[in-house]
Amino acid sequence: MITNFPDWDVMRMHYDVIVIGGSAAGLAATLYASRQGLKTLVITKDIGGQMLLTNEIQNYPGFANTSGFELATKFKEQVELYGPEFVYDEANGIERDAECPGLCFRVKTMSGDYHATALILAFGKTPKDLGVPGEQELKGKGVSYCAVCDGPLFKGKTVAVVGTGDQALEAANYLASVVSKIYLIHTHDRPIGSEDLVSQVLSLPNVQAVPNSKVSALKGTSKLETIIITNTTNGQNSEIQADGIFVEIGYIAKTAWLKDLVKLTPQGQIEVDRKSKTSQPGIFAAGDVTDIPYMQAVISAGQGAIAALSAYNYVQGIKGKTATRADWRAIKVQTTK
Fold first, then answer.
1. Could you report the per-residue pLDDT of 293-305, keeping only the tens digit for each?
2. What is the pLDDT of residues 104-116, one digit of tens each?
3. What's the chain's average pLDDT?
């Protein structure tokens, strides 16, 4: 047991736990970690993950019928009551922090480095990039992968949504009540998705469809200013002036960057035990990124809770304090007036 735990809050921004991922597993982990009083940071490109691809969920307890977008939004609203911090970025590196050997980790992202005593890997699959010039430079400067995360930042402004399927349509439907105008960029004559949702989105007065088109480049100096569009039928380019673009084109599994940190299965999943511990002390994992069977939102959420309680006990052990087995306390939550 280490009893001389340094006062990291004085020395620099240090968290008890960093949760990487913002879907069922990550948000459940954040809820349980925050309720236990851990200083918690969430690093994620979006809120909802693959749930956003599901227009109808009928098997999540307490919800007879809901959409993935609605469920993810409710998750986030509940989690925010307990005060965790959010950074909308993608983790691309983890290492033991040389400034506190054996005690904490450094998580690297495009926007900077973050430090924590424990980590919970719960990122499932990661939103795909467009892969066009200007995207990497303008991430967080008008380029977003999460409508519910960043939509309020564009209140009254002009944005674009690029993608096909209900994921893009749900994003456009949500943003229509926030922004002044939306360009819905898609590669077909008509958006692909649930017909009721297609009709609903196209009927919105501030939504303008941009059919048979793909994004070729993003331009701007300190922020996004121009979207270069290529017509897929005639190859002609055009420009759209916009303050933001929401990329809704699906997800991809990314675990190769962890291969020297935690043990992976041949399929690239993170191996965990029944307490969600990985092969690396202080690092826990939950959800679809792990080797658990039955990839369901409710199972991911349950595993996220286990990971958070295990992380809490790990941090308590580092600090020389008492561990716990449950989370039944009534806690006064934060409210806004």
1. 887 889 999 999 9
2. 899 999 889 999 9
3. 90
Domain parsing of the chain, residue ranges: 8-127+252-319, 135-249
Nearest partner of 105 among 126, 122, 91, 125, judged by Cα: 91
Handedness of CA 301, 303, 306, 308 (dihedral sign): negative
**3-state SS class at 322:** coil
Select, from the ranges 25-34, 160-169, 257-266, the one with the highest average predicted confidence (pLDDT): 25-34
- Kindly tell me the sign of the dihedral angle through the C-alpha atoms of 219, 87, 148, 19: positive
Return the SS3 of 256: helix
**Same fold across 8-127+252-319 and 135-249:** yes
Per residue in 180-203, pLDDT (tens digit) is 999 999 999 999 999 999 999 999
Q: Is the pLDDT at 283 greater than 80, yes or no?
A: yes
Cα(15)–Cα(30) distance, integer angstroms:
12
Instruction: Give how far Cα 15 sits from Cα of 74, 95, 109, 210, 321, Å.
Output: 25, 15, 15, 43, 17
Question: Which of these, 176, 124, 69, lies nearest to 289 by C-alpha position?
Answer: 124
Of 203, 148, 208, 202, the C-alpha closest to 178 is 148
Phi–psi pair at 105, nearest 5 degrees: -120, 155
6 — phi, psi (to 5°)?
Answer: -70, 155
The token duo for 280 is 């690396």
Is pLDDT of 152 > 80? Answer: yes
Phi then psi for 248, rounded to 5 degrees?
Answer: -130, 70
Q: Which CATH number is associated with domain 8-127+252-319?
A: 3.50.50.60
Q: Quote the CA–CA distance of 225 and 204 in Å, as a whole number.
A: 24
Cβ neighbours for 43, distance < 8 A, ≥ 6 positions apart: 18, 19, 20, 87, 89, 90, 91, 107, 109, 114
Which architecture, in CATH terms, is 135-249? 3-Layer(bba) Sandwich (3.50)
Q: Tell whether the torsion through CA atoms of 129, 131, 137 and 141 is positive or negative.
A: negative
